[in-house]
Structure to design on (358 residues):
């Protein structure tokens, strides 16, 4: 009989789902009460762990080999593996081992089992559909065998390696003639460019004198480059030394970065700042000197208050020191211990007695 509470209703549904997908671990139990089903599904036991293992294998058959390598007394390894699988299925946390062990609340355990069984039922439906479409696979396999037979092998080779030339004979002749013309034109242009280069350098036709002039020109160019190289001190700096920042590569990178920054600033200036920069300066209020005078007076007042506070603190400190000196007991003449007021009073009495005596 089904219970009225949520855990009891889930217990009945989970137990019925296990029976419907043919779980062998619930065959022969014949449970009819919701409390008995909840006790089976939510109480830590080897039977409950075997049910969890069966459901996981139902969803992922590859787990069968992994579970087979774990010994029966290694329950913690089984719990870790099921926890990892439940986390991969996004049904529990990566360290939620109490849920797998059966130590969590019955409602959490039953919800976890219910979601697992829903996935198992979906995988069962998928496998049944694949079995129902097995006939199509057989027909496709027969068709492939027919195509790969020796009778059709020559056709397949021709399809894989086509040799048909789409151009007709007269078009091919025209293309060959055009190609030869282009080749001659390129050669002519190349020779013209070389002649112009020599003419620009002051050379005519290439002979021994031209080679001598070219050699002298190259020598003078190398000499000028060597002198420039000596003048550029940063080219002689050690890459690892203090002049490394002035190397050509570093200068090139710095110039590139500066160009990018200038481009970015120019864009921002024209889009955001230009309108503000072209505005007329604000007109100052003629009464601004009043605010300055008030500010100065307030500042002077604050300074005087600070001085008065320091004077008050100093006066209090002096008064405390004088009071301490007056009340502190000291040894005077004849080893008597008196405070300063008592000592003054004693001296006053002695002086009065001296005056009365004389």
């Amino acid at each position: 009989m089904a219970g009225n509470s949520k855990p009891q209703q889930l217990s009945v549904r989970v137990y019925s789902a296990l029976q419907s997908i043919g779980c062998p671990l619930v065959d022969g139990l014949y449970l009819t009460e919701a409390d008995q089903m909840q006790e089976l599904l939510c109480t830590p036991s080897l039977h409950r762990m075997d049910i969890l293992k069966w459901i996981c294998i139902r969803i992922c058959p590859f787990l069968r080999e992994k579970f087979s390598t774990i010994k029966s007394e290694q329950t913690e390894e089984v719990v870790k593996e099921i926890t990892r699988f439940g986390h991969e299925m996004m049904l529990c946390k990566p360290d939620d081992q109490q849920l797998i062990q059966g130590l969590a609340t019955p409602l959490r355990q039953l919800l976890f089992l219910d979601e697992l069984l829903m996935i198992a039922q979906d995988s069962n439906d998928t496998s049944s559909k694949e079995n129902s479409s097995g006939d199509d696979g057989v027909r496709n396999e027969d068709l492939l065998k027919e195509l790969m037979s020796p009778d059709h092998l020559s056709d397949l080779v021709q399809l894989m390696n086509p040799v048909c030339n789409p151009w007709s004979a007269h078009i091919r002749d025209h293309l060959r003639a055009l190609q030869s013309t282009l080749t001659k034109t390129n050669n002519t242009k190349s020779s013209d460019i070389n002649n112009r280069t020599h003419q620009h350098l002051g050379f005519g036709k290439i002979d021994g004198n031209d080679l001598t002039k070219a050699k002298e020109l190259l020598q003078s160019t190398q000499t000028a480059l060597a002198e420039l190289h000596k003048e550029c001190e940063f080219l002689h700096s050690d890459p690892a030394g203090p002049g490394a920042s002035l190397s050509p590569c570093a200068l090139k990178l710095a110039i590139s970065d500066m160009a990018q920054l200038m481009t970015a600033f120019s864009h921002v200036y024209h889009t955001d700042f230009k309108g503000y920069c072209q505005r007329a300066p604000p007109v100052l209020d003629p009464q601004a000197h009043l605010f300055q005078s008030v500010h100065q007076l307030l500042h002077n007042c604050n300074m005087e208050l600070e001085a008065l506070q320091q004077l008050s603190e100093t006066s209090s400190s002096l008064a405390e020191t004088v009071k301490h000196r007056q009340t502190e007991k000291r040894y005077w003449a004849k080893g008597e211990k008196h405070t300063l007021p008592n000592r003054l009073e004693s001296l006053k009495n002695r002086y009065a007695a001296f005056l009365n005596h004389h």
Q: What stands out?
A: The longest helix spans residues 288-327. Strands lie at 330-331, 337-338. Residues 200-204 have pLDDT under 50 and may be disordered. Residues 48 and 189 are 89 Å apart (CA to CA).
